[in-house]
Amino acid sequence: MDDRLAATASYYDIRVKNRLINDPDNINNTLQAGEVESKGFEFSLIASPAEGLSVIAGYSNNSAKVTKDNPVNGYLGLRPEEAGPEELINFWTSYSIPTGSLKGFGIGFGGNAASEHLTLNRSNGTFTIPAYQVFNAAISYTSSQYLLAFKVNNLSNEYYFSGWSTVTSQNLRNVALSFNYRF
Question: How many folded domains does the chain comprise?
């Protein structure tokens, strides 16, 4: 396709041994005795199917579980907290008019999504960060000397969080205006 399409796909099956776990005999000590299994796949796509049109997309799925641990820790058989969300999606598509009187005007639309994240996941309970989907849009004008862009992030004003054993609030709807000048 004349270098208009690039895709990457990967599958993995990772088994980590000697993961640090708490020593059942000494609370101030750790042992290299835990094990974690992680299986998944990732896919990314970069395409320019027509002049001025660009598409970037990605997807990942990660299934992970603790397969060996000190029973006192409470992680055995569960998804490790550091594994993050099981599914992640991202995409951005944009179009810039390539010719004519509107040459240089462009629009873009995209977003990110994540499945729920068990940020604390132990046999005595879990704390879940909910799944989210965030969408963004942009309009722009580019000439040989400058770029003017207006972008709206989080179009639906989604209240969402990220974190790893923490909870961090993410930005609600916001706008950005940018101007770049080339000398």
Answer: 1
- Here the CATH number for the domain that contains residue 65 is 2.40.170.20
Give the global pTM.
Answer: 0.87
pLDDT-derived band at 72, boundaries 50, 70, 90: confident
CA–CA gap between residue 33 and residue 25 (Å, rounded): 14
- Domain boundaries, position 118: 5-181
Please name which of 92, 91, 89 lies closest in space to residue 62, comparing C-alpha atoms: 89
For residues 174 and 171, give the distance between their C-alpha atoms in angstroms, rounded to a whole number. 7
Of the candidates 17, 7, 89, 2, the one whose C-alpha atom is nearest the C-alpha of residue 50 is 2
pLDDT tens digits for 79-88?
A: 999 999 999 9
